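Tokens for chain A. Residues wanted.
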């Protein structure tokens, strides 16, 4: 058996990178019941001529569900500094979705050429929340080198809502005019119809980039309130202990979270995100 990584899942076949130029087209063993995601590491048996069978799924380090992708080393959440104007609640929900999957993402604001002041304000805000923030422009090339420098020997995912310039940015980062050029194998066509699935592009032996289109945020309503807090690392680490162990940090007396908000240790907008999500959970229970 040899170890490989799923690069693409198409029509019931898994295309597995085993460190060679060509991918191995694999079926799964019938007894293997787990769902296999793009990015999964697994053990396969070669059946000759770049065909194989998946025998075993190796332990995942992390995963996100929609789109499904596993074992990401780095996730960039891309937003635009302007046009479309970012919405803090949406950004928070995307960040929280990554945290839920076990990934502490980095934030990247594209289109900084359009509104420098807005970009700087978002930079400051999310840096205070404990995220690394990159200000870039696919148009002018600003900040692109800093992202390129982080890619080597890792699997880096890029996600972001429609219109933020993710395609333009990825073309710049990968130095490709057209992302379909240099696609991992000519067996696999990267067309418009495939863009709802994650696709891994292999840049080098152990350097991969994942385009995660159609990223949708978690349905927070099934979470417990304390789990919501744990997805906001800046709030979770504020340090204090509330008077009541069951404190939801809304209107209870002696609340350490509210004290931290009042003292400016937690930014008000992040607390508002928390309150909105908690009230949507309460709505559901009603
Ligand atoms: N001013 C400016 N415009 C940009 C920049 N990056 C992208 N754009 C423009 O923003 C628009 C959207 O860019 P795309 O790269 O298609 O965006 P996308 O996020 O991949 O969009 P979808 O394909 O809808 O997911 C295009 O008109 C781009 O020319 C930038 O850095 N600055
Ligand atoms: Zn509290």
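Reply:
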């Amino acid at each position: 058996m040899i170890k490989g990584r799923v690069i693409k899942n198409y029509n019931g076949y898994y295309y597995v990178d085993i460190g060679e130029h060509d991918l191995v087209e694999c079926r799964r063993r019938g007894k293997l019941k787990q769902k296999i995601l793009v990015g999964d590491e697994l053990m396969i048996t070669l059946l000759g001529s770049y065909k194989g069978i998946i025998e075993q799924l190796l332990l995942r380090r992390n995963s996100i569900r929609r789109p499904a992708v596993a074992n990401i080393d780095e996730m960039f959440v891309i937003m635009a500094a302007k046009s479309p104007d970012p919405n803090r609640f949406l950004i928070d929900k995307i960040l929280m979705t990554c945290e839920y999957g076990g990934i502490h993402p980095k934030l990247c604001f594209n289109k900084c050429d359009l509104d420098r002041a807005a970009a700087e304000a978002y930079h400051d805000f999310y840096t205070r929340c404990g995220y690394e923030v990159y200000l870039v422009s696919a148009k002018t090339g600003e900040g692109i080198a800093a992202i390129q420098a982080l890619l080597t020997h890792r699997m880096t995912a890029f996600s972001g809502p429609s219109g933020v310039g993710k395609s333009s940015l990825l073309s710049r980062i990968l130095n490709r005019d057209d992302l379909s050029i240099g696609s991992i194998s000519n067996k696999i066509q990267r067309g418009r119809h495939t863009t709802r699935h994650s696709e891994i592009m292999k840049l080098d032996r152990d350097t991969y980039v994942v385009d995660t289109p159609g990223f949708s945020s978690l349905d927070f309503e099934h979470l417990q309130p304390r789990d919501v807090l744990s997805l906001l690392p800046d709030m979770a680490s504020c340090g204090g202990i509330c008077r009541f162990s069951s404190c939801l940090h809304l209107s209870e007396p002696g609340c350490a979270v509210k004290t931290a908000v009042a003292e400016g240790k937690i930014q008000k907008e992040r607390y508002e995100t928390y309150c909105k999500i908690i009230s949507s959970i309460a709505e559901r229970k009603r």
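Residues 242, 247, 249, 252, 255-257 surround zinc ion (ligand 2) (CB under 6 Å). The two ends are 53 Å apart (CA to CA).
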